[in-house]
């Protein structure tokens, strides 16, 4: 989806997510989820070796970020080479 549609979905209470497979970003698989909670944009990013998504001790990335604006989220996306078109809801 494009940036405008992504922002609209988040503003209307939907969760957007991006699931990626190994070799797309690196050797691990991962999921990025974003939603709105108490007027903050919440992003969680979990990453692990393929097939180990239910074993949290295997996670190579387990992050939570809070953003006060979509501009802040956009800067995070730019810093992490994350594209809006990869997200679904």
Topology:
Elements: H1 3-11, E1 16-20, E2 29-37, E3 40-48, E4 61-67, H2 70-79
Antiparallel strand pairs: 1-2, 2-3, 3-4
3D structure, described in words:
- With 89 residues, this protein is an alpha+beta fold.
- It has one domain (3-86).
- The protein contains two helices and four strands; from the N terminus they run H-E-E-E-E-H.
- It has helices at residues 3-11, 70-79, and strands at residues 16-20, 29-37, 40-48, 61-67.
- It is globular.
- It starts with a helix and ends in a 10-residue tail after the last helix.
Written as H for each helix and E for each strand, in order along the chain, the element string is HEEEEH
Largest sheet: 4 strands, antiparallel
Oligomer: single chain
**Helicity level, as a percent range?**
10-25%
Q: Estimate the strand proportion.
A: 25-35%
Tell me the domain tally: 1
Going by helix content, strand content and strand pairing, the class is: alpha+beta
Which residues form runs of ≥5 with pLDDT under 50? none
Major sheet: arrangement of strands? 1-2-3-4
Span between N and C termini?
9 Å
Total beta strand runs: 4
Mean pLDDT: 93
DSSP helix count? 2
